[in-house]
Amino acid sequence: MREVVDVNTGEVEIRKGEFILRSTAIGSCLVITAYDAKSKIGALAHIMLPDKAPQPSSNKTKYAVGAIEEMETGLISKGTKKEDIEVCIVGAGNVLKKADDNICQANIESVIRILRQKRIVIRAAVLGGVERKAVDFDVERGAVFYTEGDSVEKLLWTSAG
Question: Is 3-158 CATH 3.30.1330.200?
Answer without folding.
Answer: yes
